[in-house]
Amino acid sequence: MIEAVLPGDVDDPAAPSGGNVYDRRVCARLDVRETAIPGTWPRPDAHARAELADTLAAFPDDTTVLLDGLVACGVPEIVVPEAGRLRLAVLVHLALADETGLEPSLAAELDRKEREVLRAASAVIATSPAAARQLERHHGLGKVHVVTPGVDPAPLARGTDGVSRLLCVASVTPRKGHDLLVEALAAVDDLSWHCVCVGPLRDTVHTERIRELISHHGLGDRVELTGPLTGKPLDEAYATADLFVLPSRAETYGMVVTEALARGIPVLASAVPDALGDGGLLVPPGALTSELRRWLTDGEHRDDLRAKARRRRAELSTWDETARAMNEVLATLRA
After folding, report:
1. Which of 29, 100, 117, 151 is the least buried, fewest Cβ under 10 Å from its Cβ?
2. C-alpha closest to that of 334 among 125, 142, 122
3. CA 106 to CA 96: how far, in whole Å?
């Protein structure tokens, strides 16, 4: 039996995230026993720390344990002492210090703690080739395994008018770049468009900043912050989208990009080379304006991006393939 230790909010519909979706899809396909531990990971309080310590201590020697990196990487004093007797595989969705907006001293502390945990683990797993290479270089690791996310099959999006309805699916945090998107949209406010931004609004300070920016540019009736959507409402948001936009400053993979591509939606994005492939336009963060204007004014360009999205759609892997790849990694620890 494989033990999986996950964040406590893994199934919280108010807190959807790529990491949570990945954990849920993969664990549902593996022979694992899950333990979800609530806490403000990667900086948990004393109660969460004690629950994690007790959980790991209760596992018999030589147990294979799949640890979500958000839970594991900030508490080496709990995880590392167990590494000598447990077969620990740490799944890194995002390097802790890569979260945008951290104070430099906190980023350095989280980076140090993550390095200590990953060097002690029996296996380290990243969700993209680029993320694996970065972890190997930055933390001085040996081989980091790559298990890329799958995607659920989906029907082709019908869109709205083929041009003007833009969709962004991302938590409203500094790393996701909603401020960059609003500034770019303000620069094309002479054209017809409406942008729907779907995602949790838990960072209330940053969310208020984005609302103020929208108001400052007079875009209150054109940029919509819906909060988190799941199930049919999220499916409908994708189904009516003409263009998917993700302005992130940093990503390890970008699962929402493949969710858009699975529906044949053209994509304009930053920081997601592995997810996007040749399926859309990859631009530097903050360089959206000219490409948005081109999308909104050039029909031949739109046709080209739609064709690219549909070709990439045919190449996407499934969650069953992801689970098989994860099982192969974990099997090396049990051998």
Report:
1. 100
2. 122
3. 10
Residue appearing with tokens 């049990």: 334
Q: Are 272 and 282 in contact (CB under 8 A)?
A: yes
> Is residue 329 classed exposed, middle or buried when 0-12, 13-18 and 19+ CB atoms within 10 A define those classes?
middle
The CATH code that applies to domain 2-150+318-334 is: 3.40.50.2000
| pLDDT attached to residue 117 | 98
Three-state DSSP at 107 gives: helix
Q: Is residue 164 helix, strand or coil?
A: coil
Task: Give pLDDT < 50 ranges for the chain.
Answer: none
The string of pLDDT tens digits covering residues 111-145 is 999 999 999 999 999 999 999 999 999 999 999 99
279: left (phi over 0), alpha (psi -120 to 50) or beta: alpha
What is the total residue count of the chain?
335
Q: Where are the domains of the chain?
A: 2-150+318-334, 165-313
- In the prediction, which pLDDT does 127 show? 96
Rounded CA-CA distance 241/334 in Å is 45
Distance CA 57, CA 12 (A): 26
DSSP symbols for 241-264: -SEEEE--S--SS-HHHHHHHTTT
Q: What is the pLDDT of residue 14?
A: 77
Q: Which pLDDT score is estimated for 13?
A: 80
Query: 285 CB contacts (<8 Å, ≥6 apart)?
Result: 177, 180, 247, 248, 249, 270, 271
- Beta strand ranges found along 101-253 (DSSP E): 123-126, 145-146, 165-169, 194-198, 223-227, 243-246
pLDDT value for 17: 87
- Strands 194-198 and 223-227 turn out to be parallel
pTM above 0.70, yes or no: yes
Question: For domain 165-313, is the CATH number 1.10.238.10?
Answer: no
Residue found under tokens 């991006």: 305
CATH fold match for the domains 2-150+318-334 and 165-313: yes
